[in-house]
Amino acid sequence: MQVQSASTLKTFARDLRDEDLIECLELNPARIGDELVGRAPAVEIWKRLIRSRSFNSTVIEAARPAQGHRIVGFGSAVFVSPAFAEAELSNPRPGLNSRIIASIDSGRSVVLSEAQLRSGNSRGGLEMVIMYGSWRRDVLDADGVSEVIVALSGSFMEDHLGYRFNSLILETAGSEEAATVGTMPIWRAVRKFDEPGQPTRTLWVVTRKDALNVVGSVANPLFHFAEPVLCLRDADQHLLLAALNGLTDEELSSRLSISLTAVKKRWLSIFERTIDARPDLFPAVAVRNDGQKRGRQKRHHVLAYTRKHPEELRPIELSS
Question: Which of helix, strand or coil describes residue 10?
């Protein structure tokens, strides 16, 4: 089979859609996590995960199909309870994803609720399991694989910078994934599992202490947490996250399913909070909302600030 090179691949990252799920999971079936509950229930649980605020995912798509496939990579990760993370590391066993899926199926989910996510990100810290980091190995050459891995890594950083991380945990399935992770000095192998008839699995971890001890690691910034100062409401965070993609107010209205008037009111709320917490961000802009031009200037300053301070866009507990 002819493989596709990076010179013709030209990938981009986008959000996971429901209709993509089966194709994404099939990039590495050993990571679906269906060993304990069965295939159909596992897929339904993945559909539920997509709607959890504790779950993030990225689809890497090729501008031109690679051997008929546009989806060439998939990454996903989920925040889990500290007790689950500790148990997995103290008693390593193959099938990490399967135990996450089974916990949801049983009604005793180890995935953080939104309240738990807010609490952990406000104090104490968070543990995350990377459930997928897979690519279409059968149709990509080495350069193409490298491009997909870079895209997955970049998207992961964009989605997760600003969280209060304690640790990242990952179980690779197959020698190729293990070899890729093994080239990154920040990851520490906990245990390798060789079972007859099964792909080789390896459990990996990186803790905050591990990360900060590896000078120059690209993952190092994940473990540098700064306290947010704007203390934005969810609605304001959602608006800013969408606006960072360059959407106009009209496009924000459509994306967030709110009126144009509501969009403008949210901008005013954001400006007021920013002026109170960081008046230095508006050095040459009047404090009052006195015109469209000055409104655009203030928006530019706020967006520039939040790009550099992603902690302002992560879930936190707000004082009443």
Answer: coil
Task: Decide the pairing of beta strands 69-80 and 126-135.
Answer: antiparallel
Sign (positive or negative) of CA dihedral 56, 124, 220, 244: positive
Decide if pLDDT at 296 tops 90: no
pLDDT attached to residue 1: 42
- Which amino acid is located at 70 in the chain? R
Strands 126-135 and 188-193: unpaired
Which CATH code, of 3.40.630.30, 3.60.20.10, 3.40.710.10, 1.20.1250.20, is assigned to 6-223? 3.40.630.30
d(CA 167, CA 208): 6
End-to-end CA distance of the chain: 61
Could you tell me if 65 and 55 are in contact, meaning their C-beta atoms sit under 8 angstroms apart? no
Q: How much is the pLDDT for 67?
A: 82
Average pLDDT, the chain: 90
Q: For 247-308, where are the alpha helices, taking DSSP H only?
A: 249-256, 260-277, 292-308
Which CA distances in Å does 162 have to 45, 168, 278? 27, 14, 18
Query: 57, 78 in Cβ contact below 8 A?
Result: no
Check residue 32 and report its DSSP letter.
Answer: S
CB 48 within 8 A of CB 113: no
pLDDT at residue number 260:
95
What's the confidence (pLDDT) of residue 237? 95
Instruction: Give tens-digit pLDDT for 297-316.
Output: 889 999 999 999 999 999 99
**Do 242 and 252 meet the contact criterion of CB atoms below 8 Å apart?**
yes
Q: Which residues contact 248 (CB under 8 A, 6 or more apart)?
A: none
Question: How much is the pLDDT for 284?
Answer: 60
- Measured CA to CA, the distance from residue 266 to residue 167 in angstroms comes to 34
Give the three-state DSSP class for 230: coil
- Is 224 in a helix, a strand, or coil? coil
Domain ranges of the chain: 6-223, 234-313
